[in-house]
Amino acid sequence: xxxxxxxxxxxxxxxxxxxxxxxxxxxxxxxxxxxxxxxxxxxxxxxxxxxxxxxxxxxxxxxxxxxxxxxxxxxxxxxxxxxxxxxxxxxxxxxxxxxxxxxxxxxxxxxxxxxxxxxxxxxxxxxxxxxxxxxxxxxxxxxxxxxxxxxxxxxxxxxxxxxxxxxxxxxxxxxxxxxxxxxxxxxxxxxxxxxxxxxxxxxxxxxxxxxxxxxxxxxxxxxxxxxxxxxxxxxxxxxxxxxxxxxxxxxxxxxxx
Length: 257
Prior knowledge:
Layout: H1 2-24, E1 27-31, E2 38-39, E3 50-56, E4 77-86, E5 90-91, E6 94-98, E7 108-115, E8 129-135, E9 138-140, E10 143-145, E11 162-163, E12 165-166, E13 177-184, E14 187-193, E15 201-206, E16 215-216, E17 233-239, E18 248-253
Parallel strand pairs: 2-11
Antiparallel strand pairs: 1-6, 3-4, 3-7, 4-5, 7-8, 8-12, 9-10, 13-14, 14-17, 15-16, 15-18
């Protein structure tokens, strides 16, 4: 009986040692930004907006995101975790653990800010644009120090992170068509057809076709179909200057090649 108890005790000690060893093999890191972070139209990032922590393998570069939030490069880039924006237009603190072999120290960790505002201006739609912050993680004991990944405090009014890089539209997205234009005082209402539920669109305008360049119209949101949409058509109400005599409009697929 005593021998059985001794064997049982040794087995318990062995399991405890294995658990401690497994815990030591886990590296820890955290992500956050000090903010405020901004969208490309200079509005502050909304609470609940999405951030990603992406690992970029040694020798690879971050290739960006598709409009559905997936990685363009699924070999050299890996999504480690996601986080959400907190009060103050910043990435909320998040910590994770992972085995060292999963993300070798030779690679790079990148925080990616997403602009997922839908046709109503609320977060949770397709990814229209992204912003990135890059830093190298340095191994330190059983953890990786990633303080440098958190974007440093900014000077003046310069934003910490800006989602200004366009995501990639799905291959084969058909060209949109303006089906109607209706003016009313200081606004113009367009109806745009031939839309795809997987693409993000930009309405652009100009006053002279012979010179100048197209500019994004001030609709304050990205034109896209909502998941509840039945048809492939959507309205866009644009604010225009009172003294406008003539204005031309076009709709482009955001991130098309």
